[in-house]
Amino acid sequence: MLTALLTKSWRDHWKGLASWAGGLIAIAAIQLWVYPSIRESSEGVSQMIESFPQAMQEVFRMTDYTSGPGFLNVELFSFMVPLILIAVGVSWGAAATAEEEHRGTADILLTLPVSRVRIIVTKMIATALVLLGLCIILAATLIIGTRLVNIDVSAANLFAASFSCALLGMLFASLGFLIGALVGRPGIATGVGIALGIAAFVLYSLAPLVDTFDAVTPVNPFQWALGGDPISNGLALSSVGWLAGTSVVILAASVLAFNRRDIST
Amino acid sequence: MDADGVAAGRPSICLAGLTKYYGHNLGVEDLTFDVMPGEVFGFLGPNGAGKTTAIRMIVGLLRITRGSATVLGADVASAPASLRHRIGYLPGALVLYGNLTGGEYLRFLARMRGGAMTRRINDLSERLNLDLTRHIHDLSKGNQQKIGVVQAFMHSPDVLILDEPTAGLDPIVQREFEALIDEAQQQGAAILLSSHVLSEVDHLAGRVAIIDEGHLLVVEDIASLKRRALRTIDLDFPQPVATAPFAVIEGVTDVRSRGSQVTCTMTGEETGLLRHAVDLGVLSVRTHEPSLDQIFFSLVQGGDRRAHRPADEVVA
Ligand SMILES: Nc1ncnc2c1ncn2[C@@H]1O[C@H](COP(=O)(O)OP(=O)(O)OP(=O)(O)O)[C@@H](O)[C@H]1O
Ligand SMILES: [Mg+2]
């Protein structure tokens, strides 16, 4: 029964997903293509970076920029990849809980002999699979690409960095589910979810400069995902635990909220 | 019939004090009526009366504020999802997945219901003259409504809950739809049919509930309701006749004449009026179906109306 719903999800969204996947492959490929020239002029680049204000170096975490992993960290994993995966996750979460109600298709879907809990959990699984799929595609691109341009970084660590971002995406996806289940408006759920993602990103980025921001860093999901520098150090169990645990709690709350919700048109 | 629900004498749908508030706004209050197996039950009321609100509580889309709704013996607030194997529901505001074809959509629903139902889907689509190969967003409103009808009937449910089912259907399809209702009724299904047009449920339903502003006005046999209802009757005579004698006939509330035609407004039995007309050599008699408005008006006049709303507000 639920395979019918998964199949339908895939059918509805594979084109959109293909373009996200293509986008991830493209930005990874471009950075990998640029990197050799950075490496060749590494002295000059290092001097240039040292000439940047200290604050800017800290915000963009540019120490170690000319090493392969450091470069990928700055160019991919500190901004582009997390935000793309957050955007995909939030929009899937919001769509799952709020879109069908808002459009009116929920009337028939939710009066089928399948409980709301099973339907929403199936959609959560679909979202997790989507993020996992994008993470694998990105990691595969990077693993192949780094081999081609001779960047010395292990496949495991590239996967670790991608997977951390996918978990980060899943955490914000769960917020999309929750807000969608509470307000029933896909636009609001997507907007608020992405705004929260950007706010967390800004807090995390400016934390080295602003003490009050730094105070919340321990509970900032970006810190959980990226603070341990997964591309250099691999996956830390604690960061996976925090990201996954928080997601599960928020997802459970969204199941409860969705199950109680008045579906109106 | 089978043990769990469709037993003769036990209602298939049972509303007891069913109440819904949207925040502080009233949706419906204190609805109480039963629909029996094999019964077509009309659910009437003007726009905003609360028909859809009540129906959405019965099918589990809205949470019940107070009171209860029982379907096939199970309280809908706590019933397992499997109860809905036996319910067919056609939403009032039907929205389908536009990117699918009709066939794909119905097959998706069948799979979600745990079966294929291919024969039944094809059979129903043929009867309703529905093209299953076209994308839903390319279909007209009426053709989309046909898909809604098919999905409500395709699993041969014991309870059918239909919210303004004939919206957008042409007369030929409407006839076929009525045949489907008849068949379901014959097989013992309980059918709740909402509408704001009396004529639509007229020849299908036995009993009706009428609600207005969230409150039940009456639950009654359609025939006796119509007898009580205010309606207009046109009488054609060979030559102009005096109107005064008509006005004193029992049940007649208003008489007008134009040339040799007399138009009476009346409630109750028509016997007295017809006798007088025949005495005058009446050529033809045309009774205009009482509209729902007129029935409301009669209900108000009959004093059944809830006291808080003055009658002139209804007329206006
Ligand atoms: N989601 C909602 N939030 C607040 N009020 C609502 C909501 N849905 C319906 N109502 C109110 O509940 C009342 C009953 O509406 P409902 O849609 O049940 O009427 P209806 O009898 O189905 O009307 P129609 O014939 O137009 O379909 C109306 O006053 C309506 O404004
Ligand atoms: Mg309605």
Keywords:
heterodimer; A: 265 residues; mainly alpha; 13 helices; elongated; B: 316 residues; alpha/beta; Rossmann fold; Alpha-Beta Plaits; 6-stranded mixed beta sheet; 4-stranded antiparallel beta sheet; globular; disordered N terminus; disordered C terminus; binds adenosine-5'-triphosphate; binds magnesium ion
Which SSEs are present, and which pair or pack?
The complex is a heterodimer of chains A (265) and B (316).
Chain A: H1 2-40, H2 42-51, H3 54-59, H4 68-77, H5 80-103, H6 106-109, H7 116-148, H8 155-183, H9 186-206, H10 211-216, H11 221-227, H12 230-233, H13 237-260
Helix pairs in contact in A: 1-4, 1-7, 5-7, 5-8, 5-9, 7-8, 7-13, 8-9, 8-11, 8-13, 11-13
Chain B: E1 13-22, E2 25-35, E3 40-44, H1 51-58, E4 66-71, E5 74-75, E6 87-90, H2 102-112, H3 118-127, H4 141-153, E7 159-163, H5 171-186, E8 190-195, H6 198-202, E9 207-212, E10 215-221, H7 222-228, E11 231-236, H8 244-247, E12 252-258, E13 261-266, H9 271-279, E14 284-288, H10 292-301, H11 311-315
Parallel strand pairs in B: 3-8, 3-9, 6-7, 7-8
Antiparallel strand pairs in B: 1-2, 1-4, 4-5, 9-10, 11-13, 11-14, 12-13
Helix pairs in contact in B: 2-4
Structure characterization notes:
Chain A is mostly helical and 265 residues long. Chain A has one domain. Chain A is built from 13 helices and no strands. Chain A is elongated. Chain B has 316 residues and is an alpha/beta fold. Chain B is built from eleven helices and 14 strands. In chain B, the strands form three sheets. Chain B has a six-stranded mixed beta sheet with strand order 6-7-8-3-9-10, with helices on both faces. In chain B, strands 2-1-4-5 form a four-stranded antiparallel beta sheet, with helices on one face. In chain B, helix 5 links the parallel strand 7 (159-163) and strand 8 (190-195). The longest helix of chain B has 16 residues, at 171-186. The structure holds adenosine-5'-triphosphate and magnesium ion. Adenosine-5'-triphosphate (ATP) is lined by residues 22, 25, 27, 45, 47-53, 92, 196 of chain B. Magnesium ion binds next to helix 1 of chain B.
